[in-house]
Every structure is written in C-alpha cells, then in structure tokens.
Amino acid sequence: MQRSEEEGKKWIRLAADQGHADSQLVYGLFLAIDENVPECRKRSFEYLKMAAEQDNPDAQFLVCMRFFLGDGVEKSVEEAAG
C-alpha cells in the first residue's frame, strides 16, 4: 500500500504534538520548506523550539539561526548567542 506525503506528514505531526523531539524537528522543517508564508514560518519556529528545548542539537542550531536571521521570529542576536 502506497502512502502519500500528506499521510506521512499527518503521522509526523501526531508524534510531534505528543512531544517526540525528532518529529518536532522534522515537522518544523516541513512547515518551513513546504509552506513558505509568514504564518507557517512562525509555526515552523514553534516546532523547532520545542525540539531544541528537549536538547535536540540540530533543532538548537536551527533555532539559533532563525533568531539570528529573524526568520519566523523577531530577530535577536542576543537570543541567537544563547
């Protein structure tokens, strides 16, 4: 049985919403890549931040860069520096 991309995203989001850090990272990236509009960029940042707060190093790096660039969040060099 073939699964669609949307079906995969649904399951990743379910895991992300239950607190799975790797799923939060992946879903945050899906939102950033697939839906390049300001509201989705904000939602993307929220998922990345949840993963970062669970010590996911990839998410921590991406959150830092998003703060530095002001991408989906207010630009803050201080927050980026940690």
Strand segment tally: 0
Low-confidence stretches: none
Shape: globular
How far apart the termini lie comes to: 46 Å
The residue-averaged pLDDT reads 90
CATH superfamily caption:
Tetratricopeptide repeat domain
Highest-level CATH class: Mainly Alpha
Please write the string of helix (H) and strand (E) elements: HHHHH
| CATH fold title | Serine Threonine Protein Phosphatase 5, Tetratricopeptide repeat
Rg, rounded, reads: 13 Å
Structural class: mainly alpha
Largest β sheet strand count, sense and barrel closure: none
- Determine the number of helices (DSSP H or I, runs of at least 4 residues): 5
The total domain count is 1
Q: Examine the secondary-structure arrangement and name the CATH architecture.
A: Alpha Horseshoe
Percentage of β-strand residues: under 5%
Roughly how much helix do the residues carry, as a percent range? over 70%
Short précis:
By secondary structure, this protein is mostly helical.
Can you give a write-up of this model?
This protein is mainly α and 82 residues long. It has a single domain, classed as Tetratricopeptide repeat domain (Serine Threonine Protein Phosphatase 5, Tetratricopeptide repeat, Alpha Horseshoe). Helices cover 73% and strands 0% of the residues. It has helices spanning 5-17, 21-34, 38-52, 57-69, 77-81. The longest helix has 15 residues, at 38-52. It starts with a helix and ends with a helix.
